[in-house]
Amino acid sequence: MKNIIVVDDEKDITDLVAHNLEQEGFKVVKAYDGLSAWEIIRSNRVDLVVLDLMMPGITGFELCKLIRSSAQLNNLLIIMLTAKTDQVDKILGLELGADDYITKPFHVRELIARIRAVLRRAEIFSDNGEADKLYIEDIEIDLRSYEVKIDGRPVELSFHEFRLLKFFAEHPGRVYTRDQLLDYVWGDEVFVEPRTVDAHISRLRSMIEQDKKNPRYIQTVRGIGYKLGEAS
Fold first, then answer.
1. How many Å apart are CA 75 and CA 158, to the nearest integer?
2. For residues 169 and 141, is the Cβ–Cβ distance under 8 A?
3. For helices 159-170 and 108-126, angle between their N-to-C axes, nearest 10 degrees
4. Would you say 124 and 136 are in contact if contact means Cβ atoms under 8 Å apart?
5. What is the pLDDT of residues 64-86, one digit of tens each?
6. CA angle 19, 37, 153 (to 5 degrees)
7. Where does the chain hold its CATH 1.10.10.10 domain(s)?
8. How many Cβ atoms sit within 10 Å of the Cβ of residue 137?
9. Topology of domain 133-228, CATH
């Protein structure tokens, strides 16, 4: 049974989402503010967070940053649920490491479908029978522990950032469009846009590149997409 925490300061929405998730067989914990949610996440096993952005105290953006900066919680799946429809806010949420983003008003069945899709992809990716490690120059990618190290130094990546890096490591030198990366890394079941790729590439570069504006590894091929280049 998967454990999900629903975090939203609107009690009616939190209770509605929690009730429907429980009907689907999930174990659900509710929180009505970011600080309470953070304490629950730190002290309990949680598989996925449904996270509102605009809350008193610790906002959803801040809570997402706390989760992604924690070595113990970095791989926790996050779906942002918010009334903010501005594209900038969506990109920011994805750059901070959210795995998906859905705006209010929303249909509960769509939210449940997205939750199942994110959980399913995480399970498939964690048990794919592949080699234990991949290497890109001085970058070590451990496929069993989801750990990435550069010169032995741990680097904390979100689930999709890890998948992107793994995919590039498996296909060095080949150029992929944003749509192809969405298909290969996100799959057909998640509702994301091509700009989602740009957001994740940007954050991945900030984690693995010495100079994000002049990347050694994840290189832009103007007018086409991205590729894993040879480090110079």
1. 6
2. yes
3. 50
4. no
5. 888 988 878 878 899 988 776 66
6. 125
7. 133-228
8. 11
9. Arc Repressor Mutant, subunit A (1.10.10)
Report helix angle 194-208 to 159-170, nearest 10: 80
Q: How many C-alpha atoms does 170 have within 13 Å on its Cβ side?
A: 14
> What angle in degrees, to the nearest 10, is found between the helix axes of 108-126 and 11-23?
60
Q: Is the pLDDT of residue 169 over 70?
A: yes
Question: What is d(CA 49, CA 55) in angstroms, rounded to the nearest whole number?
Answer: 15
- Write the DSSP symbol of residue 229: P
DSSP label of 84: -
Model pLDDT, residue 191? 61
- Residue 108: CB atoms within 10 A of its CB come to 15
Q: Any idea how long the chain is? A: 232
Residues forming CATH 3.40.50.2300 domain(s) in the chain: 3-126
- Compute φ and ψ for 163, nearest 5 degrees: -65, -40
Rounded Cα–Cα distance for residues 30 and 17 (Å): 9
> What whole-number distance in Å separates Cα of residue 57 and Cα of residue 33?
7
Based on the number of CB atoms within 10 Å of its own CB, is 211 exposed (0-12), middle (13-18) or buried (19 or more)?
Answer: exposed
Which homologous superfamily is 3-126 in? Response regulator (3.40.50.2300)
Distance, in Å, from the CA atom of 78 to the CA atom of 86, rounded to the nearest integer, reads 19
Q: What is the pLDDT of residues 170-181, one digit of tens each?
A: 888 889 998 888
